[in-house]
Design brief:
Length: 248
Amino acid sequence: MSDYLPVLGGKKNELRGGRHVYDGYQRGWGLEFGDLKARVSEDPDYRFAAEIAKARSVLLLERMMNLFLLCKFFLPRLPLGHIVEYGSFRGGSAMFMAALAQRFLPGAQVYALDTFAGMPETDRAIDAHSAGDFVNTNMEEIRLAADKLGLNNLHLVKGLFQDTAPTLLPQIGPVALAHIDCDIYSAVKYAYDVSKPHMVPMGYYVFDDATTSSCIGATEAVEAFVIQRDGLLSEQIYPHFVFRHPAA
Ligand SMILES: C[S@@+](CC[C@H](N)C(=O)[O-])C[C@H]1O[C@@H](n2cnc3c(N)ncnc32)[C@H](O)[C@@H]1O
């Protein structure tokens, strides 16, 4: 597929420290300093999916755009895998990715995991969020809206990740993208750990909030477990942290 990603110096397809530095520059540099934001905002596929997510998602624009780039240009390069989102709130980013998956990732399903009833208990020693944050959502409303849009590849999974993911993940098959957008230490650590055995080689871990000032719990979980314990190096730090699952 032809694309409008920036052409840069450096070697395409070269692995360094388990990630593709070139790909990270294309998306991260392209969005922050190049013209990629303008190119994406003119892309009819982006506009179509963004319209669906409008007024539903709390994601920053650039982060939504990076998810778009991953779904349209990068996930199709990997073996087929599903998308699992940890933290869906009103379903904005999940519906966005489901709409894109229908166009670019035939067969891929999107699983949106959330209590759909607000944040669980948090650890006030590290998390700025409190239990009950994000309570203003309604899973039935999301289901109806998704059905109306024909998003039959979107599956809403209600409950604490700890209660739903251990049964769900072994049933669904390989995961190509784990979108971890749950803000707090315990949930970010859990979502990463439970996903690991199910990732396709070089699958993507996208941490929405680990570089957000109000989510130092998420930052600590990434630092302590993804970077220190597992030794992964990031492919992107802007507009959010992106890591690759090991190749083998
Ligand atoms: C920032 S919101 C997600 C935003 C969403 N992706 C969007 O597009 O707007 C974070 C969500 O994580 C959920 N969450 C956090 N910890 C959780 C856990 N352990 N189990 C289930 N849901 C959790 C909260 O209920 C909340 O809805």
